[in-house]
Write the structure tokens for this entry.
Amino acid sequence: MSTTTSTPHLAGSAPPAVRRGFRIPEEIGVIVALVAMMAIIGFARPRFLNPINLFSLLGNTTFLGMLAIGMVFLLAIREIDLSVGWMFNFSAVFAALLMVAGIDPWLAAFTGVLFGAGLGLVNGLIAITLRLPAIIVTLGTYSMFQGLSLIANKGRAIVPSDQSSSFFSVISTKLYGVVPVAALVFIVLALAMHVVLHRTRFGYRVQAVGSNPEAAAHAGIPTAWVRLQTLVLMGAICGLSGVMYVGFRGAIDPNEGSDFVLVVIAAVIIGGTPLSGGHGTIIGAVIGMMIIQVISSGLIFFGIDATWSTFVTGAVTVLAVSLDRLIKYQRTRRLERRRETFHG
Amino acid sequence: MATCKTGSMLVLGAVALALGASSTHAEDVTVGFVAHAQGDPFVQQIQDGAQAAAKDFGLKLVVAQQAGGAPEGQMKLVQNFANSGAQGIATSVPGESMAKGLNEILGSGVPIVQFNLLSTKVEAPYVGEKSVESGRILGRMIVEKLGGEGAKGTVILGNCFPGFPVLENRAKGVEESLKKAPGLHVLGPFDVKVSAVDNYNRWEQLYGANPEAVALIGLCAPDVTSLGKLNAANGDKFVAGGYDLTELNLKAIKEGHAYVTIGQSAFVQGYLPIALLANAIKGGKKLEPGFYNAGSQIVTADKVDMGNGLKPISFDEAQKLAADPVATAAYYKPWTETLTADTLSAAPKPISAESE
């Protein structure tokens, strides 16, 4: 008689070798929800499926969607950054002020991304030094970054006067008249970050620390360093989103970003990243942000009045999340039944 | 099975919404109306004006609003209206970053009218108050109440949305008038936030830190209510002034806890953009960029000036109008009847007139 031992897959470790073949993605639930919503709206209002509208929706997803990508890493490591909107704003203001001062917009934009990373570093250093959760630290830096941004922009929109640079034309260009370049950058960033989260040592470490910080520390993972890296990454992504916003819209307003954080966290959670950490899905977050945009657009296509739209937005979001969870539940049940059959 | 049920519910829900929305397709022309600060009583009064215009001109008006005042969220709503085939859009413009996107929509042939919050870079007409001038009026009223040019003491100025050009202009006008009394020392403008709770707290803290202040002036809709409460709680020691004719603001004035509120003709700010769009769409005319003055209203407990050549009313009547959109539409009838195809087609004043 022989015994078979099976090693469970640990979060943060490299996935075990499995047989190759088609695997239904874990995001199938939200993908189905998104497609169902688009099909229903498109059936009732065919104009919704016009490519111009669909790419416009993708463009609308870009700036907040980028922040959602960074937030996946944070939730996966059991952290939440509340200051994302103001890191976005402050980086954009910083870059725009450099452009106003005559610095080449490309260089100013690059500096803006570094500036965003610097803001993330501030969050990270405070969190690690004081051993505080990022949510507590960023509760304070939320107002700090907002206040500093207001001081820098003197309460007024920053509009780079010379927008003849290729920076503005490239970022705001629409390929073939419909595909926004900014949206393409967003998709490339999403794919790159998907690889980083699931195929690199940093990504495995993020998930390991989020899954069980004590076990990760015992395993020799420098948890503080990984937390710091994640918060800096979030800041850099906020910086990238902010400078692209300046390129796309040609200006940054003093209050832009103020309402971003809840939408970003909602998109990540709708997408399937749990608040409990240890796991995250970039693709899910992107789909989650698209669901939010499709709901918003669908309400207008259906002509639903503003007084009802807030309720309907919430209700459809709950339905979409329910659909996702039910599909996941069914998959888990099916898997369990297969295991029982196999062992039986 | 459960999945199928949920899926069916999603389908049924959306189809029900679609059918529900279809039943309102009585009119040929659909116009989108996008505003900031959902739930704010003043913005609701603007919306009531827009609904009255849609009824008078036989348009279908679809309203979309966002809770705060961030430009990106509002730009997306405008974009959705343009993509959904709306023949015209009226929107407040809470930030310069909307200008590029709005001009692209204008370039695609969809007419846009701005109201209440303006970007001078948008190549579309704007309906609103003369913001610097309304600030001057408010400042002048406060100086007079404090004793004229010989007035002395500390005056606190609060702005609920630092950075909004219209509010910054109001502050400029208020400060300009206050300077005529060299003995007045102005503190601020401070950020007093827009939500009712935050707004009161900020004013309470400001007064707590400056109990010697002789006047507190706000630039937004919630301020007069907050200042009235604060004054009542402190024995009515300071002069309170601010903006907008909401029910609660008028109550604070009536009870004597606040002195003056400046209205910016919310009804006109909602009605006129829709009237301009209706005239342009039905007449196939292009709307020229420019400024349409909605007019200022001056309300104290003793005097109600509703502006726009409207008949004088008592304070009680002003209070009733603030709470009743139907009565407001009836009161404004003499003004709405002046809006003929000719008057609506007349060239507006240059946009610079807004901040004169």
Remarks:
- Residues 1-26 of chain B have pLDDT under 50 and may be disordered.
